[in-house]
Specification:
Strand order of the largest sheet: 5-9-17-18-19
Helix content: 25-40%
Structural class: alpha/beta
CATH topology of the largest domain: TIM Barrel
Number of helices: 19
Distance between the termini: 44 Å
Number of domains: 3
Amino acid sequence: MEDFAQFCIHGDFRAAIRAGNFELAAVPSSSGHNAMMLRLAKGSVNLNDFHLSTLSDLLYILLGLPMNRRLEVLLALMLLPGLATARSASNAIVVRGARLIDGTGRQPIENAVVVIEGGRIRAVGKSGAVKIPEGAKELDLRGKTLMPALIDLHTHLGQTRNGLEAAPGSYTTENIRAQLERLLAYGVGTVVCLGTDEDPIYELRDEQRAGKLPGAHFLTAGRGFGVVGGFPPGVGITDRYRPQTVEQAQAQVRELAAHHPDFVKMWVDDDFGRLPKMRPEIYRAIIAEAHRHKLRVVAHVFYLADAKGLVEAGVDALGHSVRNLPVDRELIDALKARGVIYIPTLVRDESTFAYADGPEWLRDPFFQAGLAPTVLATLESAPFRDKFAANPDLPRYRAALEMGKRNLKTLIDAGVRIGLGTDAGPPLRFQGYFEHRELQLMVESGLSPMQAIVAATGQAGKFLGRAYRVGTLEPGQQADFLVLDANPLENIRNTEKLSAVWQAGAPTRPISAP
């Protein structure tokens, strides 16, 4: 059995209490207050060192203890009137002096003060308007800009090892861990993996939520829903759900729901008419059954008519742009009435043709920082570029991006909810950098830098739900934020000027330019 200190590192406090017999004792501490010691079979830990959220967890699990032990713990807590005060003073961090973009769309706060405690934001405001806890550690960030860590609502994990090709054996804990760490180093705090995961992802998710898997936090849709002989192409028939009847669709959703995924993903596309497409009765059955299990559905989409049908059927998010026709009033009204979020993934569309042109961002040190030297050499090679240039679908891909950009501008002007997504993770879609490139393409589409940032932070966090407490820098939210050397409201490319990335109130190492 592990000792309590080890559980504390992982954040699994309930398991610690229930792991075995324990003792409680009030003993003098160096601060002059009584400290409660909790002893298990191995080791002990001083609760004065805990965050406030830890004590909340401790109280919560009392409900799972026998009555005699529950009273024992409550009595011990009552003996410690100075506990919270002593902890508050010693664990608070105050970040002051920076410009703060909070992710809500409100005007930035100049010379801001942010109080962090227990991994969460306790107070935010202008200098002089926020009470500083006694004994708090202070960090002067004058000249910097703070903004929430980015959220990517459409990504994939474990699809490639080097970024160039999908090699067998890429879906491993080691590879997924490396990708999550790279995402966080690029300032991406949370990602949603849509439909390409394998069943081991649930164990990894549990490990991360217990504090054992570092890097960007992830949510998963598990195995997605496609079509036999159709989307998603390039994967075997058996590794995705591909229902052919309404009854199969319902049964497969129930099977997926037993794993408790965070979302359901499906593909509704025909690759320019070359592949079979999911029939409306199938996607309607998937959506209805998912909603019966309290699961929200994200759909891959390309065509305007399919977008309308999916929204009418109750889909919760469109995972790509409409790229064949301009969006119309019918779709706009339906998106707004139903609160559907629209995730344009412009950088995904750019990646389908950009390598034929040798894009400028190949020479961006921020992009290169996440690559192995051999990968960059391949991307810049003439044979690689010529292979892309020979693709007969190139004109269609270019047109799709332009239509996607045009539709994004129309929708943001109409007040439709927009969230950032990249579809990064498969070969040639580079996680970490692509989130920043998506911001740039949003601004190229006519969004203001503030609108693009809100899509990548506040709106994305709102879609995930209040339980995750990410996306904005407000009291009660998790302290996930970027420290930038320049103001992204003046130039959206300044999100690349990462000085630090904070996760849960602690600085982590940002990506370094070569």
